[in-house]
Amino acid sequence: MSAITLNGVEAPCPEAYRDRGPRSVFCGLTSVVWMHRKIQDAFFLIVGSRTCAHLIQSAAGVMIFAEPRFGTAVLEERDLAGMADAQEELDRIVTRLLERRPDIRLLFLVASCPSDVIRIDLKRAAHRLSGRLAPKTRVLAYTGSGLDTTFTQGEDSCLASLVAEQAEPADSAGRSLVVAGCLPDVVEDQFRRLFEAMGVGPVHFLPSRTSEPLPAVGPETLVLAAQPFVGETVQALERRGARRLSAPFPFGEEGTTLWLKAAADAFGVDPARFDEVTAPGRARAKKALEHHRETLEGKTIFFFPDSQLEIPMARFLARELGMRPTDIATPYFNRSLLDAELPLLGSDPCLSEAPDVDEQMARCLDLKPDLTVCGLGLANALEAQGRVTKWSIELVFTPVHGYDQAGDLAGIFARPLVRKSLLKV
């Protein structure tokens, strides 16, 4: 057991054990589903197999003839066998794409497992294509490969590629705040209004709704992570001189308040002003959470590793709704990014990083938790045994950040338990 200092007070921090063995994770290409909806003049071109194309189309629930802002350059047998020049093929496909979709301002070349395995250099292709297509269209490359990654890490790689192209700051650049992590537009608007009311700014959201480059990042830039899986992005910002603000993630009333407080303190906001601005939202969030407390309080919950949201979710459910986390497993334990979450979590739950899925399944079956949070691949097996499950991917597709979504977040966990009670014979 180690300790972490939070707000000047030393608090115990749970240790996480790391296992070795088979794991069950979802593909990083899935992040394209929410990223293409956020950046409204960007296009995501996946370089992969037909399986990749079927996956992304099914996950997005969009038929390809609807012309969404993503597509797949399918690798054929000639490509896999090295009989075709991949760079020439990419040039041809990109040219055809831009002729058909001239509104594209930012093109992402997204690597997949097949393109990584046969070593297609998409970064070189992006650099070459940018030189030819600029300034009308910028081309960037990142990997969404499912090889030893989780489905949320695709977003992290995408945002890190955006940071890499930012300009150097001017000497006169003043203090600014960057919120790192993809947020639904409605949540972004809510946070922007709160920051403006407190006098915090200028505030930039990464990613933004358009492909306009992020303003220059430097020593006067403060970073507030909105998602616990943007470690690579935060490191890229820090390498440019930015400083990360330590804070819990904005889930629930408590997490949102502490997250906003970190920014307010960094910008010297008067505490009375902070309380005045946040009081209405805190009251709404507490009222919304009370609606679900009776269903969730005292119930046990078990987290399989899937989204990297497991630790903040466990903290929210335990502290604000009285649930009892038994196991909290996460695919990657970023202690630096979670430094403000861990003391709030306490030392009772079993915390693990990338555990053996077979051993964890056996432990879950033995503990018989009231609710199990897991990926789609494990949920059916558990439901077949009469267990109550919740798909962790829903936490990414649903607006769950901030005061006004606190009740919706609690409802995600309450609904399976309510359904079970209604189905009792």
From TrEMBL:
Binds 1 [4Fe-4S] cluster per heterodimer. The cluster is bound at the heterodimer interface by residues from both subunits. The gene is bchN. Its cofactor is [4Fe-4S] cluster. The lineage of its organism: Bacteria, Pseudomonadati, Pseudomonadota, Alphaproteobacteria, Rhodospirillales. Its EC number is 1.3.7.7. Keywords: 4Fe-4S, ATP-binding, Bacteriochlorophyll biosynthesis, Chlorophyll biosynthesis, Iron, Iron-sulfur, Metal-binding, Nucleotide-binding, Oxidoreductase, Photosynthesis. It catalyses: chlorophyllide a + oxidized 2[4Fe-4S]-[ferredoxin] + 2 ADP + 2 phosphate = protochlorophyllide a + reduced 2[4Fe-4S]-[ferredoxin] + 2 ATP + 2 H2O. Belongs to the BchN/ChlN family. It comes from Phaeovibrio sulfidiphilus. GO terms for biological process: light-independent bacteriochlorophyll biosynthetic process; photosynthesis, dark reaction. One of its GO terms (molecular function) is metal ion binding. It comes from the Bacteria. InterPro entries: LIPOR_BchN/ChlN (IPR050293), Nase/OxRdtase_comp1 (IPR000510), Protochl_reductN (IPR005970). NCBIfam families: DPOR_bchN, PRK02842.1. The keyword Iron-sulfur applies. Protochlorophyllide reductase is composed of three subunits; BchL, BchN and BchB. Forms a heterotetramer of two BchB and two BchN subunits. The keyword Manganese does not apply. This is Light-independent protochlorophyllide reductase subunit N. Residues 27-410 form the Nitrogenase/oxidoreductase component domain. HAMAP family: ChlN_BchN. Gene3D superfamilies: Nitrogenase molybdenum iron protein domain. It is an enzyme of class 1 (oxidoreductase). Component of the dark-operative protochlorophyllide reductase (DPOR) that uses Mg-ATP and reduced ferredoxin to reduce ring D of protochlorophyllide (Pchlide) to form chlorophyllide a (Chlide). This reaction is light-independent. The NB-protein (BchN-BchB) is the catalytic component of the complex. [4Fe-4S] cluster binds at residues 27, 52, 113.
